[in-house]
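tool=predict chain=A
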Amino acid sequence: MSPVLPPEKDPTIPFEMPIQVQPSDIDMIGHVNNTVYLRWVQEAATSHWDAVAHEDDHATMFWLITRHEIDYKRPAFEGEKLIARTWVGYYEHHKCERFTEIIRVSDNRILINARTIWCPVSQETKRTVRLTEEQIARYSKGHKPD
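tool=predict ok
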């Protein structure tokens, strides 16, 4: 049976991280550089992990990205306020999927959609680890259906 988590600890509920576009985020074309979006996707995921991880898991494991898929839909510009909204998907073969969208606050438009694949790694050995069934229930929507 899956553990019942309070909403603030349930990683399937979207987590939001505010973003203020800085001058250093802007590229030569005058909008946010694509690599900055990638940084924000990673920062949102890390912030989400910090918010939902159990102490013992936080102390014994971390996550590495093995794949990024990003669809760039609209540009963002200096000074704009954005929200990175992220949530977890399914667990499959030692990896968890995570979804992120970055939204402009002023018009609620989605600027990017991202799907990233994360792999759990042992703090001690720096090697990939298998999640327990309890961890799978905690940090994903469960096993990916066939």
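The longest helix spans residues 34-52. The CA atoms of residues 36 and 118 lie 19 Å apart.
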